[in-house]
Design goal:
By secondary structure, the chain is an alpha/beta fold. The chain contains ten helices and 14 strands. Helices cover about 35% and strands about 20% of the residues. Bound molecules: nicotinamide-adenine-dinucleotide. The site of nicotinamide-adenine-dinucleotide has 21 residues, from helix 1.
């Protein structure tokens, strides 16, 4: 039986432990230097290690690396060196060269590396991808994604959150960018503008990006953490109970035969008429269903056993990171940027 260890028993690490338990996958151990993690390990009846080297020496079949972002590169490389498959929380790393190195090391060593973009596992997203691949929307033309919500003033009391390296592009948009890539393919180029007009911090509080996909699909992305609004995947995806839910969508994809609103899973069609005088109606794709964190650990276990390929590989996480950095760079320079990988 596969036994998976969780490194980093913080906010998301504890949810991974719960997902493993609910999925019936054995928990090997908890790895975290914080003494509080001993209680988490005890609650699951598994050993607690205070550093990754000790945890790896105990030979888990896989590790979920839910440590702070700055630790991802070093931690994942240690797992790869030990031949232990690793699922790295998003973002894969904080630095693109580190991500390139770790994905290269995993591929060279034949050690599976996965990225924790769990929203790919939402049933409605899987259903949307199936509909797109089946041609239900016809030729894709355009897409739009929204991340509008309001972070409270005291969120910015923590210095790193108002310093370069933070901001909603880096902190939040990776999820949306990864989903757009999952549904629409590779990104050819990006233009963007940003503003810090509301808070005056040295990071953006709003940005708008124009993204052209290899397929020719034109996409707009809106991001702001200074707007009170219901249109973010955080509020609409219902994949994280910490956020207040709304019944709205946050992403729209349109083609010559129909369009999709996600994550509500509404598919709009005029029955192939392609005529603005004809009635247009909606059907609803599957919503709810399996918790995406559960589906993600199941996929990880199956990859370890050689029964599946990763739904989100390390290389996919790398490409999403490169696209995100392209958006940030485009906003900073005013230039059209091609993602570097
Ligand atoms: N997929 C998602 O939706 C999602 C949501 C939240 C966080 N995350 C990601 O998960 C990661 C963790 O975020 P969090 O909010 O749980 O952080 P957190 O601060 O709540 O927890 C991090 C834990 O890692 C431990 N840690 C620090 N250094 C370690 C090391 N070297 N080895 C082992 N453990 C170590 C800390 O003691 C802490 O318990 C981040 O990369 C974050 O971006 C993803």
């Amino acid at each position: 039986m596969t036994a998976i260890s969780v490194a980093g028993a913080g906010l998301i690490g504890r949810r991974h432990l719960e997902a493993l338990r609910l999925a019936g996958i054995a928990i090997h151990s908890v790895i975290d230097p914080d003494p509080a993690a001993a209680e988490v390990a005890a609650a699951h009846g598994v050993p607690h290690f205070t550093d990754l080297a000790a945890g790896l020496a105990a030979r888990p079949d896989g590790i979920i690396l839910a440590t702070p972002n700055a630790h991802h590169a070093e931690g994942a490389l240690a797992c790869i060196a030990a031949g232990v498959p690793v699922l790295v929380e998003k973002p894969l790393t904080t630095d693109l060269d580190d991500a390139i190195a770790l994905v290269g090391a995993g591929e060279a060593g034949g050690v599976p590396v996965l990225t924790g973009h769990h929203r790919r596992h939402l049933p409605v997203i899987q259903a949307a991808r199936t509909r797109i691949e089946a041609g239900a929307l016809g030729t894709l033309v355009a897409a739009h994604a929204m991340f509008w919500l309001a972070k409270p003033d005291d969120y910015f009391d923590t210095p790193w959150r108002r310093a370069p390296g933070a901001g909603p592009i880096y902190v939040n948009l990776i999820h949306d960018v990864d989903l757009l890539r999952f549904l629409l393919g590779e990104i050819a180029s990006v233009r963007a503008v940003s503003s810090n007009r509301v808070r005056g911090n040295p990071i953006e509080d709003a940005a708008a990006a124009l993204v052209t996909f290899d397929s020719g699909v034109l996409c707009t992305i809106q991001v702001s953490d200074a707007i009170v609004a219901p249109w973010s995947f955080e509020f609409t995806g219902h994949d994280n109970p910490a956020y207040p839910p709304t019944d709205q969508s946050a992403m729209w994809i349109g083609g010559t035969l129909g369009s999709l609103a996600l994550p509500r899973g509404e598919e709009w069609s005029d029955g192939g008429a392609r005529d603005w005088w004809q009635p247009i109606s909606r059907t609803t794709l599957l919503r709810g269903g399996t918790d995406p964190l559960l589906a993600q650990v199941r996929n990880f276990a199956d990859v370890i056993l050689g029964r599946a390929t990763p739904v989100c590989s390390g290389r996919e996480g790398l490409k999403s990171l490169a696209a995100l950095i392209a958006i940030k760079t485009a906003a900073e320079t005013g230039e059209t940027v091609t993602p570097r990988v």
